[in-house]
Design a protein that fits this description.
Blueprint: E1 2-5, H1 8-16, E2 22-25, H2 41-54, H3 60-75, E3 82-88, H4 91-105, E4 113-119, H5 128-136, E5 139-140, H6 143-149
Parallel strand pairs: 1-2, 1-3, 3-4
Antiparallel strand pairs: 4-5
C-alpha cells in the first residue's frame, strides 16, 4: 500500500500512527509560480524546480532530484494493491490532489485501488487513533473525481 500525502509532517504523523510504511510526501507549492497546463510530471519538473530555486527555497538540482524520485515512486504505483491519497481542505493540498488525480486519470489502474482520506482538519492535528479511524473510513476515488481533476 502506498500512501501519498501533502508533505513530510503529515507523512511522519502517518508513520507514527502505524497507518503505513510506504509514504510519499508531495512537496510542491503549486499555488506559487508557474504550472503550465498540459505538461506531464517529467516536463513540469524543470519548470517547478527553476521557480523554486529562483525563490531561494531550494537548490535547482536538489529540487529536480527530489521531484524525479517522487515521480518515480508514483510511477511505481502498480507494485501496490492500493494507493491512498491523504490531503486536507486547503488550497495547498487541493492543488496537489488535483494534480495527482489528473495524473492517475491517464493511467491503467486495473490492479491498484485508488482511495482518498478527506479531512476538514489538518492531518498533523489528528492523533494516532484519529488517523487510524480516518484511514478506515477512506473512500474509493470515483471516475467523476478523476474526470473533474483532468
Amino acid at each position: 500500500m502506498l500512501h501519498v500525502t501533502n508533505g513530510d509532517s503529515a507523512g511522519e504523523a502517518l508513520e507514527a500512527a502505524a497507518v503505513g510504511r510506504a509514504i510519499l510526501p508531495w512537496r510542491d507549492v503549486l499555488h506559487e509560480g508557474p504550472v503550465p497546463a498540459g505538461l506531464e510530471l517529467d516536463a513540469l519538473r524543470p519548470v517547478r524546480a527553476e521557480f523554486i530555486a529562483a525563490q531561494g527555497w531550494g537548490d535547482r538540482s536538489s529540487v529536480l532530484e527530489q521531484f524525479a524520485q517522487r515521480d518515480a515512486a508514483l510511477e511505481g504505483f502498480a507494485a501496490h494493491d492500493e494507493v491512498v491519497l491523504w490531503f486536507e481542505h486547503d488550497l495547498y493540498d487541493q492543488l496537489q490532489l488535483v494534480q495527482i488525480l489528473a495524473w492517475f486519470a491517464q493511467r491503467d489502474r486495473a490492479a491498484t485501488r485508488l482511495s482518498q482520506v478527506g479531512s476538514a482538519r489538518y492531518l498533523t492535528d489528528l492523533g494516532p487513533a484519529e488517523l487510524v479511524a480516518a484511514f478506515a473510513a477512506r473512500a474509493a476515488v470515483s471516475a467523476e473525481q478523476l474526470a473533474l481533476a483532468s
